[in-house]
Amino acid sequence: MPSLQVQTYTLSQGIELSFTDSGAPSDSVDYTTVVFLHGGIFNAYQFYKLHAHAHPLNLRTVFLHRRDYAGSTPYSRTELDELEQGSVEFWERLSAQLAEFLGMFIQREKIPKLNRRKMPSPHETSYRSQTSSVEGKGGLAIFGWSAGCATILSVLGAAQNPLIKEELYKDLQEYLAKCILYDPAYFSFGYTPPDDNPNYIPWHDPAVSVEDLPLAVAEWVSSYYDHPCYDPLSQSLPSTATIYDLDGKKKKSDLMSLSTWSEEDFTKGLEGPPAKGELLAH
């Protein structure tokens, strides 16, 4: 099991961001660095076992604790108010902080640049040939899970953030290869569920107190569901599935991933206070 050596970068405005790093694969000059951003309630500790699998895949994994979590600078009361109000300035600052972190990591760790391959020739029409031709080695990928996707999209979705220097934009273009959105929260895209949404959402449940909300959400997201629209052949939900086709009315299942966690996992991996602020803001 990899050791957890937490590092901290201090950004230009005194903001601190903590993270763990698998380090560079030995003797590799073209590894890809993958920066993970966790969602709400569960901090980056949940990913740490993946560090052990990085080097055989020619990867370097960096698990970043978002603001308000595990060693990173907490949000101020003003920032939480801005988050609740949907302030553009809040998201510009947050995305600028992520961009600055990426720039610092690139500079300090001297990770390989993205080596882009040539575009396919006109006669290469298969999906596989096109995909393999435009991919390259090295560079940087950013991975967001759930609420972490909102921070990533705030960087990539803005045409121009006045808080991100043009030089940093250009540097990131030399490295940024992929953006991976894993189970993004609906508010990451700026929309809310329809009023007739039949599925259970803990933070919309008046019976769940603010104090009980983090654990209720943790149990909810780590539960297992038998969706009636599940396709066993493709082992996925069909592209035509909607929220009305899901088995989503249960508050939790009898078997949960959370039930396999040790006491240490709970202590290190779950954080209630920051989750309350984020969830209540949405």
From TrEMBL:
SUPFAM superfamilies: alpha/beta-Hydrolases. It comes from the Eukaryota. This is AB hydrolase-1 domain-containing protein. InterPro entries: AB_hydrolase_fold. It comes from Lentinula raphanica.
